């Protein structure tokens, strides 16, 4: 084989997208290591941190022989800078190399979100009408604006998870007014009961 076709083949292989099995959560063990709060804070995108903006990014990686993550790519980000921040966190994650059923996790594709949200400084609760629809409860960490209105509400918990009450709960959280003592860009935990 001549040098030119070999060089062309090598170049084509370098430019080919990474082929890996599709991600799956079936029989996936719990993380054996995750980033610390200090590591997450250090990676918080600076522009978002200035205004206490919460967002996430989703990583897709291959489980390496040691349980670390390899060949990671940010496949989604809620706001600019969070994909790059998530990629800096990838080395901080570890999975056991055996699944709960004993099958090797090495070579598996994992896809998972990483969320940056600072602790809430205050709590509040409100209700919303189900209007005959599903009932439930949800808690959101929301950012306070200068007008005491809320935005950037991030779901923290939902009971029961995945039922149709979530959209009504989110609407109620966004209508809520923060107490007058709330500082702009602080976060408030708003619990909403949909009845």
Q: What is the quaternary state of this protein? A: single chain
| DSSP summary, beta strand count | 7
Quote the beta fraction.
Answer: 25-35%
Q: Largest sheet, if any?
A: 4 strands, mixed
Low-confidence stretches: 5-16
**What is the H-and-E element order?**
HHHEEHEEEEHE
| Strand line-up across the major sheet | 4-7-5-6
> Could you say how many structural domains there are in total?
2
Task: Give the CATH superfamily of the largest domain.
Answer: TonB
Number of H- or I-type helical stretches: 5
Q: Give the N-terminus to C-terminus distance in angstroms.
A: 74 Å
The helix-and-strand class reads: alpha+beta
CATH architecture call of the largest domain: 2-Layer Sandwich
Task: Give the CATH topology of the largest domain.
Answer: TolA/TonB C-terminal domain
Q: What is the C-level CATH assignment of the largest domain?
A: Alpha Beta
Q: Mean pLDDT score, rounded?
A: 90
Which percent range fits the helix content? 10-25%
- Gross morphology: globular
As a whole number of angstroms, the C-alpha radius of gyration is 21 Å
Characteristics of this structure?
195 residues, alpha+beta, TolA/TonB C-terminal domain, 2 domains, three-stranded antiparallel sheet, 5 helices, globular
Characterization of this structure:
The strands form two sheets. A four-stranded mixed β-sheet has the order 4-7-5-6, with helices on one face. The chain has a three-stranded antiparallel β-sheet with strand order 2-1-3. The chain has five helices and seven strands; from the N terminus they run H-H-H-E-E-H-E-E-E-E-H-E. The protein has helices at 3-15, 37-43, 46-50, 82-89, 166-175, and strands at 55-63, 69-77, 109-116, 122-128, 136-144, 150-159, 187-194. Residues 5-16 have low confidence and may be disordered. It is 22% helix and 31% strand. It is α+β, with helices and mostly antiparallel strands.
